[in-house]
Design goal:
6-stranded antiparallel barrel, 25% helix, Helix Hairpins, Elongation Factor Tu (Ef-tu), domain 3, 6-stranded mixed beta sheet, disordered C terminus, alpha+beta
Length: 392
C-alpha cells in the first residue's frame, strides 16, 4: 500500500513539471492583436442630371387689396358680413342710416319735376313768340327774352336732374358694398358708430388671395435669360415642406435698388383653398434650367468646420480616411449640390463619422438610403403576449 502511494506521488510530480514547462510556450502562442478598422457607410460619388434652382427669401402678398370705406356720413345700423369670410363683389357689408339721404332724394325729385314744368312753359312761350315775330306782331327783343328764358329753363332742368342723380348716389352709398371679391378681415367699426363725418372712414379690408403673389429679390448680377415671364417657381413653407402647386414668374422689375443692388421679382400662385396667407415669409425656388453633370450628395454627408465651412470624409481604395473641404451649391430635394471638392468615383462617408478621423483607417460598406414609407411587419408568434397563469 505504501509503494502504491509513492508511485502516485511520482506521477503527480511529473505532471506538474510538464505543465510548468509548457505554460511559457502557451503564452508565446497568443500575442496581443490590433482591433479591426471600423466600418463606415459610403456612397460612390457620381454625377447626375438635376434641375438647377435658386432659393431666395420671399413674402406672400394679396393679388388685390381694397379698403372698404364709408363714402357718406351716417350711423352704422347693421354689419351684414361675417368676419374672415369670403365675399363677392357687390355683396352688402354695412347699412348706414338712410333717412336723411332718402329725404334729400325726394326733395331733389320734386325739384326736378318743377324744373320740367318750367321748361315746358318756357318752350311754349318761346314758340308763341316766334309765331308772333313771323307775323310781325311782336318785336325781336320780346322774342329774344322768351328765347333766353327757354335756355335758362333748360339749364335749370339739367341742374335739377344732376342733383337728383347725386342724391340717389348718396342714398345708394348708405348701403356699403364690397368693391372686390375676396376674403374680408375684421370689422373696424361697430353698430351705432358715426362714420364718414369729414373723412372716408375705414370700415374693413378685403384681400383677394386666389391667386396670391409672392414678392422676392435677387442680386442684379445673378439675373440671366431664364428669369423670364412664365418661368416655374416653387414655394417652401417655414417647416421646409413644398407647396403642391407650381407658380409662374409674372415680371422682373426694370429698376435696380441702388442701396442693395437687388431686383424685385413677383410670381403668382393658385390658392383655391386659401392655405397661403398674405404676409407669410417663405422660401422661393426659381427654376434655372437643368445641370447635366451635378454632383449631389446626401445632406448628412456634409460636415461643418468650426468656421462653418463645408467638408466631408472620403475613404480611398487602401482604406485611408481623408477630410476634404468642399464648395457647396444649393440644397435641393435630392441633396446638397457640391460644386467643388469631390470627384466622381470617390467613396464618400455618409454614416459613421464618430468612429473615424483624418489619416485613420476604415472599412467602407455600401450605404442603404432609408425608404420614405416603412411597411408594418406582420405580427409573429413571438410578438404575441404569453398567456398568464390564470389563462392557462
Amino acid at each position: 500500500m505504501q509503494a502504491c502511494s509513492f508511485s502516485s506521488f511520482v506521477q503527480c510530480l511529473a505532471l506538474l513539471v510538464l505543465f510548468v514547462a509548457c505554460e511559457p510556450a502557451a503564452a508565446e502562442v497568443a500575442p496581443a492583436g490590433e482591433p479591426p478598422p471600423p466600418e463606415v457607410s459610403t456612397i460612390v460619388v457620381a454625377s447626375r442630371t438635376v434641375p438647377r434652382v435658386r432659393e431666395l427669401p420671399g413674402r406672400l402678398v394679396a393679388s388685390r387689396v381694397a379698403e372698404v370705406r364709408a363714402r357718406v356720413s351716417g350711423i352704422v345700423l347693421e354689419r351684414v358680413f361675417e368676419e374672415g369670410s369670403d365675399v363677392r363683389q357687390g355683396d352688402v357689408l354695412f347699412r348706414l342710416e338712410p333717412a336723411v339721404y332718402r329725404a334729400d332724394r325726394d326733395e331733389r325729385s320734386a325739384a326736378l319735376e318743377r324744373a320740367v314744368a318750367t321748361l315746358e312753359q318756357a318752350r311754349r312761350h318761346e314758340k308763341r313768340q316766334l309765331t308772333l315775330l313771323e307775323r310781325q306782331t311782336v318785336s325781336t327783343a320780346q322774342h329774344d327774352v322768351a328765347d333766353a328764358a327757354l335756355k335758362q329753363a333748360e339749364a335749370d332742368y339739367a341742374s335739377a336732374k344732376a342733383r337728383l342723380v347725386r342724391a340717389r348716389i348718396d342714398l345708394d352709398h348708405a348701403t356699403v358694398r364690397a368693391p372686390i371679391g375676396g376674403r374680408i378681415g375684421r370689422t373696424l367699426v361697430t353698430e351705432g358708430a358715426l362714420v364718414g363725418d369729414g373723412s372716408a372712414t375705414h370700415l374693413a379690408t378685403i384681400q383677394q388671395i386666389d391667386p396670391i403673389y409672392v414678392d422676392f429679390v435677387q442680386p442684379a448680377g445673378m439675373l440671366d435669360a431664364s428669369d423670364r415671364e412664365g418661368a416655374e417657381v416653387e414655394i417652401l413653407r417655414a417647416d421646409g415642406s413644398r407647396h403642391p402647386d407650381v407658380g409662374r414668374l409674372l415680371f422682373t422689375d426694370v429698376n435696380v435698388d441702388p442701396g442693395t443692388a437687388q431686383v424685385t421679382m413677383r410670381a403668382t400662385f393658385p390658392n383655391p383653398d386659401g392655405a397661403l396667407l398674405p404676409g407669410t415669409y417663405v422660401r422661393v425656388r426659381l427654376a434655372r434650367g437643368r445641370d447635366t453633370e451635378a454632383v449631389v450628395v446626401p445632406p448628412q454627408a456634409i460636415q461643418r468646420s468650426s468656421a462653418g465651412e463645408a467638408q466631408a470624409f472620403v475613404v480611398d481604395d487602401a482604406g485611408k480616411v481623408a477630410l476634404k473641404p468642399l464648395r457647396t451649391g444649393p440644397l435641393t430635394e435630392h441633396g446638397w449640390i457640391v460644386e467643388d471638392g469631390l470627384a466622381p468615383g470617390e467613396q464618400l462617408v455618409v454614416e459613421g463619422f464618430q468612429k473615424i478621423h483624418p489619416g485613420g483607417s476604415a472599412r467602407a460598406v455600401p450605404w442603404v438610403a432609408p425608404t420614405t414609407e416603412t411597411k408594418a411587419a406582420p405580427p409573429t408568434t413571438e410578438s404575441k403576449a404569453a398567456p398568464t397563469t390564470a389563462q392557462r
